[in-house]
Amino acid sequence: MTNKKFRVEFTFKGEPITKSNAHFAAWSKKHRRCIMYVPAKVKQYEKALYEYAVKAMKRKKRQPTKKLLRMKITYYYGTKRTKDLFNLPKTTADALEKAVYDNDFQIHEAHIYRKLDRKNPRVHIIVEEMSDSSWEKG
Asked: Whole domain around residue 94: which residue ranges?
């Protein structure tokens, strides 16, 4: 059996959604304070992306990894009205936890791109193992 490095690549169709700035506060009588919550639309998007990633991993006969990772994400928007590039990866990284990797803390390098494709909005994701030595060299 060869010791192949972990690599998975897939495309999730649909308009990219960001979790940042999508939190709302509601007064909780029970807790006597404001409680922050994430809207259902964001939760549904994360769940759908998670389920898609689980299926992609099964098709590729892969298990979630515990290795150090590099991630490349390209967000294709259907409109020029886009979200802040730095807010986008949090939703994606959180959705892939337990599907592609154990914890998004494993991501040590990220390349994030934003493009326009009016006819086919989507998120293209590549996650690959990186060597421990690249982390240790500093």
From this structure: 7-137
